[in-house]
Write a structure and sequence with these properties.
Shape: globular
Bound molecules: inosinic acid
Number of strands: 6
Structural class: alpha/beta
């Protein structure tokens, strides 16, 4: 079986990709290859950050690898928080509750609620780099709604649904989300005959 490192230790992301690639690839996490470095994400694009992580693994471990990076891009905020989505409220830490609160405060009274979630995946196989994108357009709600999911799910309404990701629930979300779309494209590429 071919091996591929996913530059993450997020169990949910690992389960998702393992279910999609089936028996064709053995997916290893960073912990599986004994990589315990917090790889710095210093690029100013999602693609750049995904490439930094994938290159780190390829260059230090010599293993084929892919990495992802996700951002929420809000039109009225000029594309922010973008690459700063995880640390929007506090530059030195990830506080999802504070992030959501800050986003609602920034958009208070603003009629333009348009936003998109975007995931970039960088794959390096035998030294060759490939990029895949997944995107879902939608709106930012005026208040939090729903209880499922994580992060900004209670305030993101994917287009044509009228409900937040947190109201739609994980099963529906996993069919249409930015990450699901990016992962589908990666899998189409990996599993092509
Ligand atoms: P990461 O690149 O997957 O670590 O995600 C970066 C940031 O985006 C984190 O703050 C996450 O909480 C947020 N995020 C990523 N994907 C989602 C999602 O599907 N729903 C809500 N928030 C998300």
């Amino acid at each position: 079986m071919k091996q591929l490192v996913f530059a993450t230790n997020n169990a949910h992301k690992l389960d998702e990709i393992r279910a999609m690639v089936g028996n064709d690839f053995h997916i290893l996490s960073l912990a599986d290859i004994d990589c315990h470095t917090d790889i710095p994400e210093t690029a100013d694009t999602l693609e750049g950050n995904a490439l930094i992580k994938a290159r780190y693994v390829y260059e230090n471990y010599g293993l084929d690898c892919f990495a992802d990076d996700t951002g929420l891009e809000v039109e009225a905020l000029g594309g922010a928080p973008g690459v700063h989505t995880a640390r929007y409220a506090y530059p030195d830490r990830h506080d999802p509750v504070a992030n959501t609160r800050k986003l609602l405060a920034e958009l208070e009274g603003n009629a333009n609620r348009r936003a998109a979630f975007r995931t970039a995946i960088a794959l390096i196989q035998s030294g060759e780099e490939h990029l895949f994108e997944g995107r879902v357009d939608g709106l930012i709600a005026t208040e939090e709604r729903g209880t499922e999911g994580f992060g900004y799910d209670p305030v993101f309404i994917p287009e044509d649904t009228g409900k937040t990701f947190a109201e739609l629930g994980v099963d529906v979300k996993n069919q249409i989300s930015h990450r699901a779309r990016a992962v589908q494209r990666l899998c189409q590429y990996l599993l092509q005959p």
